[in-house]
Amino acid sequence: KVLILDFGGQYNQLIARRVRECNVYCEVHPYNMSLEKIREFAPIGIIFTGGPSSVYEEGAPRLEKEIFEMGIPILGICYGVQVMAYTLGGTVKPGHIREYGRKPVEFDTDCTIFSGLAEEANALMSHNDTIYELPEGFKSAAHTDSCPVAAMYNEAAKLYGMQFHPEVTLTENGTAMIRNFLYNVCGATGDWTMKNYAQTAIEQIRAKVGDGKVLLALSGGVDSSVVASLISKAVGRQLTCIFVDHGLMRKNEGDEIEAVFGDGSINFIRINAEDRFLARLAGVTDPERKRKIIGEEFIRIFEEEGKKIGSVDYLAQGTIYPDVIESGVGDSAVIKSHHNVGGLPDYVDFKEIIEPLRQLFKDEVRALGSELGLPENIVWRQPFPGPGLGIRVLGELTKEKLDLLRDADAIFREELHLAGLDREINQYFAVLTNMRSVGVMGDGRTYDYTIALRGVVTSDFMTAEWARIPYDVLDKVSRRIVNEVKHVNRIVYDITSKPPATIEWE
Ligand code: XMP
């Protein structure tokens, strides 16, 4: 395994991701991890990340020289190479040459990191400080027109570093450079796979939980489902999952979740609370008010169930890497309230939180889910808002309207799946507008609802582009919905991006 020492840079997660893509296990730890701890961790290699500081600044993260004398190969990136140069007696000049953005770099392909790669390629630079004098035993391994030491190396000592960021896709051959370090310097064998990860995680959970009890709020989303599956494999019926079905799920979704988790291998509690939610939402039309009521009712139900269970030892959460907010340098990560309806259920009496997905990226969570044998419909489930269809039936909610939307939405999803578009469109759904219009069916006049279809392509859901769904697919969806779903006589497709629109309509 590889150790990534975190100096607080913005791309640190990406470094971990690249290393894992090379099938090498890695963990990110704060830069000030003690030498003793590092020895215990026994990494085959260490990567120093970038960071916002300047090595000469007061309070800048520094290293002890001994770390370079442990015989462990090290790769320093951006601040990581500066701190390496500084600690080993080179000089780093602040503000001497500033470089930002993608720049052509020339490489010395004798250096193992660049061997077998192009002699010139573009790389993402983002630094204020530069290495001015190399430490003893080092050679420059790359330069740009303004920076003579864009990379340095000491092959005998197995120490390498670069000013640019190999972890971002803007840097050509970046992953290949990381791979060279892992395979040709550290001697990695590339045996880290989701299968191994699953085994290790299961063993760790088992060791930690012992004969304790674990509680998990299961929403049926990818993250909480994978956590449920992992913990159930580790401790079986010591795990209790509470699934609050608020009646605002998509068609058959509640039953699908029950089919997967209700087989008796864990304590699975499904609360069918549709009536309670609908009663509280009756007559409410304002979207934010609807959200608030759904969130509150959710907490209330969880609270009631939590009381019945009594105290538990651990509360499990599906927190994943992108949920972990980096604050400051290296350590002290803050948890974002994961469950997207209610936040941390702090009324449940528990000792500790366990978050087995805390180090994983979304695509890795999906791969792990497949590895654990979860069905495709759960592993590839698109993001679904906590308030569910409550914010996709515009205005007042009724059971009839929800059922109508569920049918229309199911047709849309089925057709996108058949057209092979369901993985490239990141979120897609039907909305029941509260508009009715005149139509003609057979010989009769109709006055029925309009269904809006929405599909977006996005990587972060902060901005999104409307999906260019082929006309013939839209045509088929439109025909099917008006024919198969009563009280719908018009279909529109939403062609606004975000911004200025949002993904959801409410
Ligand atoms: P918007 O509509 O804000 O949506 O562009 C961005 C992403 O967030 C989801 N979303 C929600 N998720 N509770 C949630 O848990 C909510 O109230 C909520 N509103 C929007 C939306 O589905 C999209 O993925």
TrEMBL record:
Active-site annotation: C78, H165, E167
SUPFAM superfamilies the record matches: Adenine nucleotide alpha hydrolases-like, Class I glutamine amidotransferase-like
Taxonomy, superkingdom: Bacteria
Keyword match Nucleotide-binding: yes
Top-level class of the enzyme under EC nomenclature: ligase
Pathway assigned to this chain's UniProt record: Purine metabolism; GMP biosynthesis; GMP from XMP (L-Gln route): step 1/1
Catalyzed reactions per annotation: XMP + L-glutamine + ATP + H2O = GMP + L-glutamate + AMP + diphosphate + 2 H(+)
InterPro entries, alphabetized: Class_I_gatase-like, GATASE, GMP_synth_C, GMP_synth_GATase, GMP_synthase, GMPS_ATP_PPase_dom, NAD/GMP_synthase, Rossmann-like_a/b/a_fold
Assembly, per entry: Homodimer.
Record's function text: Catalyzes the synthesis of GMP from XMP.
Protein's recorded name: GMP synthase [glutamine-hydrolyzing]
Organism from which the protein derives: Hydrogenoanaerobacterium saccharovorans
